[in-house]
Amino acid sequence: MPSTLVTGALGQIGSDLVRTLRAQHGAEAVLATDLRETDTSLGGLYEPLDVRDGERLKALIEQYEVDTVYHLASLLSARGEQAPELAWEVNVNGLRYLLEGARARKLKVFWPSSIAVFGPTTPSTAPQQTVLEPTTMYGVTKVAGELLCQYYATRYGVDVRSLRYPGLISYGAPPGGGTTDYAVEIFYAALEDGQYTCFLAPETRLPMMYMPDALRATLGLMAAPAEQIRVRTSYNVTAFSFSAAELAAALQEHVPNFTVTYAPDFRQAIADSWPDRVDDSAARADWDWQPRYDLDTMVDDMLVHLREKLTIPSNP
Ligand code: NAD
Ligand code: SER
After folding, report:
1. Looking at the predicted structure, is the pLDDT value of residue 89 above 80?
2. d(CA 76, CA 19)
3. What pTM value is reported for the model?
4. Residues 165-200: pLDDT tens digits?
5. How many A from CA of 120 to the centre of ligand 1?
6. CATH number of 171-207+239-276+293-309, picked from 2.40.128.130, 3.40.630.30, 3.50.50.60, 3.90.25.10
7. Domain limits of the chain?
8. Angle between helices 137-156 and 94-105 (to 10 degrees)
9. Is the minimum distance from the CB of 73 to ligand 1 under 6 angstroms?
């Protein structure tokens, strides 16, 4: 019987997380769920689940004797601006149904927040505790979610833990409609097309992290003794920050003829409302968080894996 349930399992983070959890605990120990009716891509237990359906969520938790949930189902920042009502229903109502289930069944929960909780009134290097006045519906849902998590932890003793992920870069499932998606798209464009039109301006700088570090942070937080978890809203975590032009230059060192043009769209305003950097000293002090990848080692590793995935020789 699986003991771990992952919602939003077919997304950018979920697909990598499910593989990692199954490698650690065994294929049968992890139930993947998402909107799709069926799935064979992850090669294990799968059930369709819309997280807006609290009854179905409860039934799956009981049926599969779940004790731990990684709740990743969400609309991200760009999609959230296109469908704000849906973003609230999925991101906030879905989380509340889960926290109610966690309260009743004493589940341990991981739920990701985001740098989107910050806004233009946050300092450009965002402290752990600071002004949270986001300008996007996605950010509003993440602030509400953080407060819900803290409320369920302090009022009902639910062991819910959370990270404010920065933009995540990976070579597995594509990103699902965020403002930092450009930092993944640009790798595919460099290898497949030799040119990329970036939807953010060249000087736009954002906090970022490579997926292996994001998975280590997630599993590290979940493995930490409960008494070390002093933040029950959500921990800042980061690895590095770069501007769009700096990422393009790092790629051009490996793909010399790669060209990038810039055509900022509505996502520019979202990026401009977020901080350049994040101070993650609380995570480092409380549960020993430490990233392993910097910009250069991330670019090297991404290119190795993407060339393999796209069957592009390394020295054409
Ligand atoms: P994603 O868009 O790639 O995946 C989200 C998944 O949720 C998708 O597979 C989608 O089908 C599913 N989903 C959407 N609505 C649903 C519903 N009603 N019921 C069930 N499933 C539904 O996103 P991701 O990048 O994997 O993000 C996962 C979590 O991490 C989200 O909470 C997101 O806010 C957070 N996060 C991601 C990043 C990032 O850069 N990827 C950064 C900060 C925070
Ligand atoms: N990567 C996410 C987004 O751009 C940040 O939460 O929406």
Report:
1. yes
2. 22
3. 0.98
4. 999 999 999 999 999 999 999 999 999 999 999 999
5. 24
6. 3.90.25.10
7. 4-168+210-236, 171-207+239-276+293-309
8. 10
9. yes
